[in-house]
Write a structure and sequence with these properties.
Blueprint (H helix, E strand, L loop, with lengths): L11 H12 L5 H19 L2 H5 L9 E7 L6 E7 L7 E2 L6 E7 L2 E12 L8 E12 L4 E4 L6 E4 L6 E7 L5 E7 L5 E8 L7
Antiparallel strand pairs: 1-2, 2-9, 3-10, 4-7, 4-9, 5-6, 5-8, 6-11, 10-11
The structure holds fe (ii) ion (FE2).
Length: about 200
């Protein structure tokens, strides 16, 4: 177990898990996400950049994805992500799962998109979709945001010189999502299912 996974009594991660265990008992996604957001903001303050010191670096365009905790009842997972300068995601969804994200180190840019269908493939791979940029937010340490379906098409990108670290809490385990890759013409994208895995340390 690495320092990032330390859940000994009194550790920042133990406090976060206790907070999330309580938060996921709320009766709607909005209320759950509000409780999770408060927990993540406290975690960022308590962690004091600890995740940034212990999580390994990744090369190329492959951002790091580290499982910190899986709720034994399957209600949520806590995943830390590392973003070296220039790394980011394509436009993607969260397959209908709520998510709350909080910055632990550095800064990230989150761009959200509105979608409109163009040609159907039953909502699956190969579907052609047009996206329009809806909003762009730069988030720094301790700043958190929620993604509650159906408004969940977005890109995370680190255009800054310094590495960024974020922690994401999902309402389950996100093993795959749909990504949207440029289809060669302006705002036109092609849907593709992407399986997600964790970096080597878990
Ligand atoms: Fe995402």
């Amino acid at each position: 177990m690495s320092a990032a996974h330390d859940r000994s009594p009194g550790s920042p991660l133990a406090a976060l898990v206790a907070c999330l265990d309580a938060a996921v008992g709320a009766d709607c996604s909005q209320s759950i996400c509000a409780g999770v957001k408060a927990g993540l903001e406290r975690y960022a303050a308590a962690d004091q950049g600890g995740l940034d010191r212990v999580l390994p670096r990744t090369g190329g365009d492959k951002y790091g994805r580290h499982l910190l905790h899986r709720d034994p009842q399957g209600r949520y997972t806590i995943v830390a992500m590392t973003w070296e300068s220039g790394q980011g995601t394509p436009i993607h969804d969260h397959c209908g799962m709520w998510c709350v994200e909080c910055v632990q180190a550095g800064r990230i840019v989150v761009t959200s998109y509105d979608r409109s269908e163009v040609s159907g493939a039953g909502g699956g791979d190969g579907e052609q979709v047009r996206f329009a940029r809806a909003a762009e937010v730069t988030a720094g340490v301790g700043e958190a945001g929620s993604l509650i379906p159906p408004f969940d098409y977005h890109v995370i990108h680190n255009p800054f010189d310094a590495r960024a670290v974020t922690v994401h809490v999902y309402g389950g385990e996100m093993e795959r999502c749909q990504v949207f890759l440029p289809a060669g013409e302006g705002d036109l994208y092609r849907a593709e299912t992407r399986c997600l895995s964790y970096s080597a340390d878990g």
